[in-house]
Amino acid sequence: MITLKNIVCPIDLSQRSPEALRYALALSHAYDAKLYLCYSAEGPHAKDKTLSATTLDNMRGIFTHLIIKHLGQVDFKSVNWEGLLIEGGDDPAEAITRAAAEHGIDLIVMRSRRRPHRAALLGSTAESVCRIAPCPVLVTHSQEREWVDLTTGQVSLKRVLVAYDFSDDAERALSFALSLTQEYQAELHLLHVLPKPTQDGPEIAWGPSSIEGVYHQAARRLQKAIRAEAYLWCKVKHAVRWGRPYQEVLAYAKEEKIDLGCMGANGKNFSMEGLFGSNVDRVLRQASCPVLVAHPLKPTLISNQREKLVEQTVML
């Protein structure tokens, strides 16, 4: 099971950006974690030199207002939180991950504005953070199934999907999903996608019996992936499909009305594949629900980046 001690929620003060705060507040409450609100200010070479000074004076008030907006004045007093103002420069994703490394963050919660044409060429900030983050990242967006109520902040997480390929990365995603399903008594869906048989090899290699064998082998491995005690606190559904992983993950999420998708990724498997990115990139851009990308924690990165961030982070 996972332990969340520190959660960071980056905001850029756009109209929709603070919506991720609802999820960050809900999870920090559930896991009794400290919440950091992070704003990436202009770098030292920015054209607008007044922004950093203005932000330094006003950001704590803005952070306070945002938390009270979601929780109310009474509940605000119970929140363990801290505001961070960091120098963003030309790369806000790098600034966010530096902040996460410096403060020993266990989870980054952020909003994606989903600009598909620009993201396909350059990648969004959320995607960039997912690639280089030293910890798991939960990405929300405006066109999704909400499981944290817009007004009350109550959590209604009913169905969690794990895209499971039997790798260590997928195991981390599963661990996160199991913790959430136990916390909120949700259903756990485990999906494995097999590549479609090709005609390149010998015909006997992909005969009916061979295809059936591959399918049943994957199904058996999928069932064994869940520890027996997990069935005591949640309902588990297994599914094996043929096709392209990202397409099947997206389709399954819509069909089963999934509230949260979990995928594992590391630097090797989450690199850009051609012009349009990896399976995780595509799911992030098109999923009908929030997506959690379960990176392994990187203590080495945290240690190496700590000294670099000290000079650039202003504690509010």
Structure characterization notes:
The chain has 316 residues and is α/β, with parallel strands linked by helices. The protein has eleven helices and eleven strands. It has helices at residues 20-30, 50-71, 73-76, 92-102, 116-122, 125-132, 168-184, 208-224, 245-255, 279-286, 299-310, and strands at 6-11, 34-41, 81-87, 107-112, 137-141, 159-163, 187-194, 236-242, 260-264, 291-294, 313-315. It has an eleven-stranded mixed sheet with strand order 8-7-6-9-10-5-4-1-2-3-11, sandwiched between helices. Helix 10 (279-286) links the parallel strand 9 and strand 10 (291-294). Helix 4 (92-102) packs across helix 6 (125-132).
List keywords for this structure.
316 residues, 11 helices, alpha/beta, single chain
Question: How far from one another are the termini?
Answer: 32 Å
Strand order of the largest sheet: 8-7-6-9-10-5-4-1-2-3-11
What percentage of amino acids are in beta strands? 15-25%
DSSP strand count:
11
Shape: globular
The major sheet is characterized as: 11 strands, mixed
Structural class call reads alpha/beta
Report the radius of gyration as a whole number of Å: 21 Å
Task: Summarize the SSE layout with pairings.
Elements: E1 6-11, H1 20-30, E2 34-41, H2 50-71, H3 73-76, E3 81-87, H4 92-102, E4 107-112, H5 116-122, H6 125-132, E5 137-141, E6 159-163, H7 168-184, E7 187-194, H8 208-224, E8 236-242, H9 245-255, E9 260-264, H10 279-286, E10 291-294, H11 299-310, E11 313-315
Parallel strand pairs: 1-2, 1-4, 2-3, 4-5, 6-7, 6-9, 7-8, 9-10
Antiparallel strand pairs: 3-11, 5-10
Helix pairs in contact: 4-6, 4-11, 9-10
